[in-house]
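ok so I'm stuck.
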Amino acid sequence: MERVKKSDKKLKIIMIAGLIGVLLIMLSDMPIFHSTSQKNDSYDYSYDEYVISLEDKCEKLIESIDGAGECQVMITLKNTKESVYARNSEENQNDSSFSNSYEYVLYKGEDGETPVLIKQYFPQVMGVAVVCSGAGNTAVKENIIRCLSSVFDISSSKISVSKSK
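replied:
not stuck anymore, here's the structure
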């Protein structure tokens, strides 16, 4: 008799744990628990917004260098943002031919079916032009060039620093 009571108690605990699991699965599908969407993605910049954001950050960085003073920055980029989406591939090979077919993996979102994003590559900086009041000082100019070269991983020949009027 005592053995039956212990197994009943274990069965109740297992059932409660199972119900809690099912409840959590149901709650996870509710939209309030999905904090990120493609529309609210902080990396969803247009090309111009991305360049302006980089230029603003560079201006603040350069102005914080001792002796640089006020500055203006212009950045050129090599390309635009590139997105890589998940896809299924199928290869067919016969004795005399070979063919590939690809199909993007889609998921149902708020705006209908959307491809699954795997990676995003942001544009690479090609060159930077800086005009600042402290560029007349060689040490300040070198500090700015070294700073930008390391931030963007570009050679110093791709960075121009000039004194403002």
